């Protein structure tokens, strides 16, 4: 089967997912969401603050906490070895599932590194938790390999998080997320806290790694120009509902939902050629992102 064929196969399906915050005035943050993520695709999830993007991401990995409750729906992971009903997993199975099949990188993830242990120890702990029989040599090789892949010098294995820049810490978190070669990575505003140049480098790296390793990415941000550049398809959320799901090209050229059109209209510089910068790395090309933020 070719990579293109695999790209049309589902790796994750959400059916009728509803998430409610059971507060005094209950808030239905995700409303009957249906979504299919294909193998190896970058799916952008766009929408303004408070529309439910993070709630959806947490629910997929069962990281939601009370008062959040999944009120309806199914979340199915389609592994090469069969389907997994994520909502039915026992705690132990869920721990094995996370990182191994599906991993997450959050906006504040770089601050999620343990401040008192080295990068080496943190990578090793995660590896051993899932692969207890791994030898020291394999652990060292895998740790060096993932750091290299995200553009961090393996000599940094001995560093503590405070010795690394914000961009480097975020790269280490991405290395951690790909450590066990999951088929899905969910990235929730992974670069928002970083400056534009660092952000752009990391995004380019994520696209390149996806091309190389063929994992699927759900990339969450309210930054629609950025999503247009890196995504294969984009889902637009409005008040808990997915109101449009289209290829990035079609969404850009022919958005159907009035809210998508409004969202596109709110980024006046969305007139350059989509995607040229990150996908080809040609620096002379119109840099939509930088213009947007200028
Ligand atoms: N712990 C909570 N208790 C009650 N309501 C919550 C809680 N967390 C989120 N919500 C509500 O759920 C809705 C969706 O929030 P969510 O954080 O998922 O949106 P978002 O699109 O990720 O926003 P942002 O881009 O600002 O992160 C919002 O109305 C929010 O107020």
TrEMBL record:
Residue ranges occupied by any ABC transporter domain in the UniProt entry: 12-264
Which Gene Ontology terms describe the biological processes this protein takes part in? peptide transport
GO (cellular component) term, any one: plasma membrane
- Quick check: keyword Membrane in the entry? yes
* Coiled-coil portions: none
Location in the cell: Cell membrane
Which molecular function GO terms apply here?
A: ATP binding; ATP hydrolysis activity
SUPFAM superfamilies xrefs: P-loop containing nucleoside triphosphate hydrolases (SSF52540)
- Topology relative to the membrane, per the entry? Peripheral membrane protein
InterPro entries (alphabetical):
AAA+_ATPase, ABC_Ni/Peptide_Import, ABC_transporter-like_ATP-bd, ABC_transporter-like_CS, Oligopep_ABC_C, P-loop_NTPase
What keywords are annotated for this sequence in UniProt? ATP-binding, Cell inner membrane, Cell membrane, Membrane, Nucleotide-binding, Translocase, Transport
Family affiliation: Belongs to the ABC transporter superfamily.
Protein name listed in UniProt: ABC transporter ATP-binding protein
